[in-house]
Each structure stands twice: as C-alpha cells, then as structure tokens.
Amino acid sequence: MTDILATVLGLIGAGLMLASYLMKSMLPLRIAALSACCFLVAYGALKQALPTLLLYGVLIPINIKKTLQMRQLVKAIEKARDDTPVSEWLLPHMHRHTVPAGKRLWSQGDAATEMLYLDSGSLRLVEYDELLPPGSLVGEIGLFAPDNRRTLSLEAATDCVVYSLSAEEMALLYYQNPKLGFHVMRLIVARLMRDTARHRAPATPAAGA
After folding, report:
1. What is the spatial distance between Cα 35 and Cα 41, in angstroms, rounded to a whole number?
2. What pLDDT is attached to residue 206?
3. What is the side-by-side order of every strand in the sheet holding 130-132?
4. What whole-number distance in Å separates Cα of residue 138 and Cα of residue 115?
5. pLDDT in tens, 67-113
6. CB-CB contact of 164 with 97 (8 Å)
7. Does residue 194 contact residue 128 with C-beta atoms inside 8 Å?
8. pLDDT tens across 43-55, in order?
9. Can you say whether residue 109 is alpha, beta or left, with left for phi > 0 and alpha for psi between -120 and 50 degrees?
10. Distances (CA, A) of 206 to 81, 178, 203, 209
11. Is the overall model pTM greater than 0.70, yes or no?
12. Domains and CATH numbers, the chain
C-alpha cells in the first residue's frame, strides 16, 4: 500500500513539474513547481530516497520565496497609478552594486544587457555631459532598441550605489504581468521626448556674442 501511495505521489509531482516547464506565466509556474516539490518530498520520504528528499526539500523554501516575490510584484502593479515610478516595482528584483567614481559602466554602441536604478551618488551621460540624480532609472532604452545597443555612454561621476536588472530578468517580469511592459514603454517614450526637446531647443548665445 505504501509503495502504491508513493508511486501515485511521485507521478503527481512529476506531472506538476513537467507542467511548470510548459507555463509562460511566472506565478502559476512557481505555484506548480512548489506543489510538485511537496509531492516529490512525500514520495522521497515514503520511498526512503534521501537524494530526492533532500533535493526537493531544499527547493521548497526557494520556490516559496520566489512565489511570494511574484505575488508582491503583481499586487504592486495592480495597485500602481500611472505616475508610480517603475523603480518601486523593480527594486525587490534588482541586484545591488557599488561603483567607484570615474568608472565607465558602458559606452555608446555597446550591447545592452541590463538597466540600472541609481540609489545614491551621480551618474553622467557622457555625450550630453548630463548628471543623473539618485532615483534615476537608466539603460532601459537599450534593452528595447531593435539592435539592443547603447545610445549613450554612462559613467560614475561620484561613488555610486546602483541596482541592476538584466534583460532576461526583465523579460521574466514582463511575462508575469504585461502591464509592467506598458509602464516601461511610457518611461521610454518620456525619455525620448525629452531627448527630442533637447535637440530642438535653440542653443544659448555665448556671452558677448
């Protein structure tokens, strides 16, 4: 009887794990993977299969953490107003780094692999000689550009603390809730409109000219 029960639990767990690989939405994927781990832990316990028990036992808290993060993201996006900074949703999923003054983070034409949120310090857009203050989100245009190339160079004007999000991580978050993509697009359009206005603005006459 125990062997039959273990086999049934193992088959259910295997089926849920397979289903998780076929899902495109991240929250159902995590829930399916978490459920699969629970069934497979029960299978490992009944079969006294220590490797299976340890592997899926370790994966349970990992999947719980990821599931809770996704639920928080969904709730944040659903409650967000149109003017809510995208960074408020992204920070829990970003990675913290310290950058020394003078370091070049990327150059114009480089492949775009990540976007950054500036927590403290100042970053400089080299071609415009423009300083970005804390709270700025930068690098998102390159992630969505057709050729995935940087449009401007970026360097640290002072010692900085930044948070990064890779293109792959952004894609996963987008699959979780496409509304995130809408708000990122609004951010990109606003940035392009500011750049266009900067190019169209008449040059300030030099003193004495």
Report:
1. 10
2. 41
3. 104-106, 154-156, 123-125, 130-132
4. 6
5. 887 777 666 655 655 555 666 667 777 899 999 999 999 999 999 99
6. yes
7. no
8. 889 888 888 888 8
9. left
10. 43, 48, 9, 5
11. no
12. 2-78 (no CATH), 86-200 (2.60.120.10)
Structure confidence by residue, pLDDT tens digits, 22-66: 776 667 888 888 899 999 999 889 888 888 888 888 999 988 888
d(CA 130, CA 173) in angstroms, rounded, equals 30
3-state secondary structure 129-197: CEEECCCCEECHHHHHCCCCECCCCEEECCCEEEEEEEHHHHHHHHHHCCHHHHHHHHHHHHHHHHHHH
Asked whether 122 and 116 are in contact (CB, 8 A), the reply is no
